[in-house]
From TrEMBL:
PANTHER family: ALPHA-L-FUCOSIDASE, ALPHA-L-FUCOSIDASE-RELATED. The keyword Electron transport does not apply. The keyword Hydrolase applies. Residues 5-316 form the Glycoside hydrolase family 29 N-terminal domain. This is alpha-L-fucosidase. It comes from Microbacterium nanhaiense. Its EC number is 3.2.1.51.
Amino acid sequence: MSSSHDWFTHDRFGLFIHFGLYSTLARHEWVMTREQTAPEDYERNARFFDPDLFDAREVARAAKAAGMRYAVLTAKHHEGFAMFDSKLTDYTSMQTFGRDIVREFVDACREEGLRVGLYFSLIDWHHPEFTIDYHHPLRDREDAVELNASRDMVMYREYLHGQVRELLTNYGTIDYLFYDFTYDEPRDGWEGKGPADWDAEALLRLTRELQPGILVNDRLGIPADLVTPEQYQPDETMTRDGVEVTWEACQTLNGSWGYDRDNVDFKTPDLLVRMLVDSVAKGGNMLLNIGPDGRGAVTPRDLATLAAIGDWMDRNERSVIGAGPAAEVAPFGTRFTRRGDRLYLHLFHWPFGHVHLPDLAGRVGFARFLHDGSEIRTSAIDPDQQAWNTTPGGQPAGTLTLHLPVTRPDV
Ligand code: FHN
C-alpha cells in the first residue's frame, strides 16, 4: 500500500452509511429487486422522499464519539438514485428534495476531522442501458439474455464514468472510494457483462487521475489498494500470492445495510468491539454500518450502540487505533494487538483460572484471575496500573483489555 494510504491502516475503524431512496421503503437496500419492482414504478417513491431528519453533523459526531476515524456514504446504490447533484440525470436528491446529501456529508466529516469515503455502485437498475442482471426486476423474462445482448453498454459506461468524474471533481478531496460490485463469473442474464463492460481499468485510471491519493477497494473486479471481506472476519492476516494485504471487513449493525424496519438481528456492543479487535489483531480494519430511515433519522438503538462502543474506545482506543497484529501467540479466547512497545491482551470472555502467556515469560508477569472473577491483577508494573485491576462490572462493553509493556519495567 502506498504511503499516502498509511492513514487507513492507522485509523482502523470507520462508519459505513447506507442511505438512499430505498430507505423510504424500510425493507433493505435491495427492495427494488426483492419485490421485482420495475424502474418506472420504483422511481415513483422519490415523490415521498424528503429526509428532513437527516443531519450529517449528528452522524459525523456519533462516528467520532464511537472512536471512528473515517466514514463512507452511499453516493449511489444499485437503485440508481444519486444522493448528489449529478447533471447526468434528474434522478437525484437535489432534483427530488433540493439537497445535495453528499455535499452535506463531506462538509460534516471534515468539520469533525473524519476522513471522507464515498460508496458508488457499478450496478444501476434504473439506467435504461444497464445490463439486466439476474437480480433485475425483469429477471424472469425469458428474453432477458437477448435483451442484455441488445444493451448498448457504451452509453452506460459513459454515464458511469461521468458520475465518477462528478463525485471526484466537485466535492474536494475524497480519501476512499468504495466501488460495489461485480460478479467474478458470468451469471444468467449477466453473460459477458461486468468489468469488461464498464471498463474497470479505465475507471480505475480515471479515479486516480482525478484524486491521486485516493484509496480504492477491490470491487471494480480488478486489484486495487485493499481487499474487502463482505460481512465476515478472516481467519488470519490476509494475503494475496503470499504477500500480506491491506483489508477491511464491512459489517452491518443488524443484518441489513439499508434501514429495515423488521430487522431484529442486532449485534451487541460487546460483539462489535470484539470484531474490531479481531480485525486489528489480524492486520485489518472494520467498517461498521448504519442505515438511516426514510426521514434520514439514525435509530436510537444504532446511536446507543455506537455510544457504547465509544465508551470502550475512550479507555482502550490505543489498543486498536495505530495498532496492529502482534508476533506473540494469543491464548485461546484472547487476542493480542500491538502498538509500538506495548502489547494489548484482549480477553473475549471472562477467564477462570490463570491465563498463561508463555510468549511473554520474563517480559511481563502473568495475569491472575481470581476464580470468583472478582478481580484481576497482574504482576507487571506499568503507569496504567489502574487499567489492569478491574472487575467484570468495571469494564465497558467489549473486551477486557490489559495494557501490557512488552519489556520488563525498570523496577
Ligand atoms: O449489494 C451490495 C449490498 O447492498 C451492500 O451495499 C454491500 C456492502 O458491502 N455490498 C453489496 C453486497 O456485497
